[in-house]
Every structure is written in C-alpha cells, then in structure tokens.
Design brief:
heterodimer, A: three-stranded antiparallel beta sheet, B: alpha/beta, Endonuclease, Chain A, five-stranded parallel beta sheet, 10 helices, 11 strands, disordered C terminus
Chain lengths: 180, 316
Amino acid sequence: MIIPPPGMERILFTEEEIQARIREVAGEISAKYQGRPLKLVGVLKGSVFFLTALAREISIPHKIDFLAISSFTSRSGPGVVRIAKDLDDPIEGEDVLLVEDIVDTGFTARYLLRTLAGREPNSLAICTLLDRTSSRIVQVPVEFRCFEIPDRFVVGFGLDYKQLYRNLGYVGVMNPDLAQ
Amino acid sequence: MGLITVSGEAGCRHEEVARLAAGRLGFQLLLEPELRNMIAQEFGAEAALPDKAYVPVVTSILARLATRHHLVVCAQGMEFLFKNQPWILRVHIVAPESRRVGALMVDHNLEREEARQLLRQVEFEDRRNRRRKFRRARAPLEAFDLVLSEEGMDSEPMAGIVEAAARAKGIEEQGLLAPAAEAHMQFQIRLQLSKYGISPPRDVSLKRVPFAHRSEEIFANLLDFYRIAWEYEPRSFVIQFDRDGKPLESFTPDFYLPEFDLYVELTTMKQAHVTKKNRKVKLLKSLYPHINIQVFYQKDFQNLIFKHGLHVEAPS
C-alpha cells in the first residue's frame, strides 16, 4: 500500500478503472494495426508505466522503443527543445504510435510528431493516457485516449510532481501548494 | 545595415532557423505575414499592387527598417534584393523530399500521399508567385551565400552556422543603414514607384513592446523553447462602437501564433478580471468570427508552472 502524498485532493481514476480502460484502448489498437508493423514509442519518463501496461494488453506483435526530450525551465533562456535520448532503431516503414502520459498544450506532441515524421514512418499517431483538451493551444491528432481530464494538476501512473509520485497506481488531483 | 535572408524549399523549417538565428544574433526577425501586414498598411492590400512594384515596395520597407535594426528576413524571394552588398547574408534551407513530405503530414494532419500532393501544390504556387513578383521561378544556388540541408541537421545547429557565417562576414560591423544612404535609396525607389502611382512608406517600424507581466515573458520563452513562432500584442480589435460608429473599446490579445493563425490570451488570478476578459473574448468572437482565439486560463497556466517547476505569479 503506497502512502498518499501530501496535497492529494482526490483520486480521479482508480487503478481498476485505468486497467479496464487500457484494455479497451489496447483492443482498438490491436484491431487497427492488425497485420501491420506496429511500434510503440514511449516518451520518457512519464509514459513508462502507461506504455508497459498498454503493451501487455495489445494482442498483436509489436516493437517498443523510447525517446526523451529536454525539459523547459525558467532558466531555459534561449535554449530550445531537443532530443535528449533518441530512438535506438529507425522507424522507416513502420506504423508508429507515440505513447504519451498526457497531452495538454500540444507543444511536446507537436515537436515529437514533426521530428518523427521526417524519418519516413508508414504512419504516425498518438495514444495518450490523459488528454486535457481544455489546455490545448496547438492542435495535434490524438487518435487514442484513455481519459479526458479537467484543468487540474494530476499525478500518478507516470505523472510526477518534482519527479515524485510516478509510481502511484491511480491518477489523483493534487494541490501543489499543499504538497510543499 | 546587417541583413540575413532565410529562404527554404516548401516543407522546410526555414522559419524556425530564421527565428533561432535572429535570437542568437540579437537581430530583429521579420516573417512573411508581418511583411505582408506592413505592405498592406503602407500601400494597401498586396493584391492591389502591380507585380512589378513588389520589389521596390519591399526594398523600401526594408531600407526604412534597416536604419533602426539589423534584420533576419524570412519571406519569399528576399534573396533577389540587395545583390552584391557586403552587409547581406543569403541563406537557403533544403531537405530531402521525404522529410518535407513528413513535415507537411504533421503540420496538416495528412496521410503521406495527401502530403505529397500538397507539397507539389505548394511548390507550384511558390514558383508562380516568384515568377510574378521577381520574374524568376527559383533562385539559382549561386544566389545564396549559404545552403544548408535538414538531412541530418536540426534547426539549432543550422542557426549556429548562420550565426557563425554572419559574424565571419562581419555584417553587423557594417552598422545600421545611415539616414543619408536610406534617403538616397528611397529617392531611387520613389522614382521607380512613381510609374505605378505609389509613394514609398512614411514610417514603418517593428514595434517591440516589453511584456506587461513576467508570466507573459515565461509563456513567450515556452513558445521559443518549443520552436513556435509568436508575436506579442500585434493587433487590437475594436469590440465596441458608439452610435456614430466610432471605436469605444478595444481588445488586444496577448499573443499571435502565425503558424496556427491563432491568438492566445492569458488570464488573471482574479475572477472579476477573468469575467471581464471572457466578455471581451466573446465580443471579439461575435464581431470577428474568422479570428481564432484561445484563452489560456489561470489553471492552465498554473499547471504549466507546476509541471515545469517554475516560480512565477499568475498573470494580472
């Protein structure tokens, strides 16, 4: 039993709800990519938990790979986003499903799509655990989503607050002011 | 006068390279939409200009701006202007077709074949416009000082190379365009434009307003970080008129993202201010239904702050 973190206001999705929904989405993915060279591409670190759970429910053969991008900070200054850890293998001719923990403004997803699109995949789509459409600034095509969420700060199932709480089995709404 | 022109094949990220290079050098960036707005403000809608007047019109605008700024200009055909001048650096970005098709797939949410067709169409339009305005469908490679390929190189290192080339060529050391030189240039342009009944611009300027709030600066940094082009408060919209049709109230959204043709307004912590802004946004949407605007609410902003571990007050 994991101790709830300070500042946790409520559980948004329980472990059981998440697993059930992942099973449904994995079914949709398995149907859509039947007979195609599917590769799941996870974005470190947030998507690790979701990708692993998703991959185990997808019934068709598929590959997995990971990449990481640099993070924005107030000290980022004139820096720009870049790939901090690239994919291990090429994606040319493969059907790539970019697996995200959350899509909100769309900034990260857009950058990754643009980067991956140049590597000649057969197709490119996004699958996200959480979709906060109310925060969307840049429109990105999210083909598979498990849950749409309100404009609240959430942690758990891969999502962090100061690198903590990714290991929670559920997704909860946190008040960071109370988490200090 | 230091002038860097950045052009690229259809589907290339030349705007991104231009923006990054401008940031590195501290030059002012001028993109196609902003240039088009200036032309429209000074000479009327671009479509009404005779094709042959385009080159002197743009030259006139750039000369005026160059008295106050070193410039990075990313607009079609700029490499044809100011030939053989020591203070110009002409850069061209190329990429394999597969990469450019990929870029269009993402930008327009298309399948590969649709993106390929779009690329053909964009290239056709580009050639037609160049022929119309500059009497040449494309510039030969020797028209550029620097040609860079996106294959195997990201925008950031390319911007670094542009910066190094600009410094090596010493274009900044040439200084800003002297008023006397500008006056001479405008005189020549006036002669050319008189054939079409057009006068050179009176006063074009690149307005650079300081941010009203730290949160806006952070938002701008965030857009820069994700390589998204933006303009700060570029346009005001009249949202209320009196009985005689005179403007009573205006609304100036905080940001404009030209790539998405989208205005973004950041909101306040205080509910009274949020209500006020919501009213303005609602009025704007009803009066200007073709304008896309996205309100970025306080909660959204806070989520960004928490997510990136930043420390800042919410916008006021």
